[in-house]
Specification:
Blueprint: H1 5-27, H2 43-54, H3 57-76
Helix pairs in contact: 1-2, 1-3, 2-3
Amino acid sequence: MKISTRQLALCAVLTALALGLSTLENLFPVTLVIPLPGVKLGLANIVTVFALYQLGPLPALCILAAIVVKRLQPVLGADLRPAARKA
């Protein structure tokens, strides 16, 4: 499958938007309104569904994988930042 530059740019923007919404979602305690453990708004899923409709299944899967890696980062203890160079 050949992807155009426009589709690649849209996929990158949607990935950034999904990661931002996922981070924003963690700031609001939804459990105060709905007292069930594990309940989330799922704002990043809106972006994933839009990407599935607009770009197709493979770019939507890539966006979803980026969200999952971001959410699993604290659990796995992984530091995904690039290592600092030593002079």
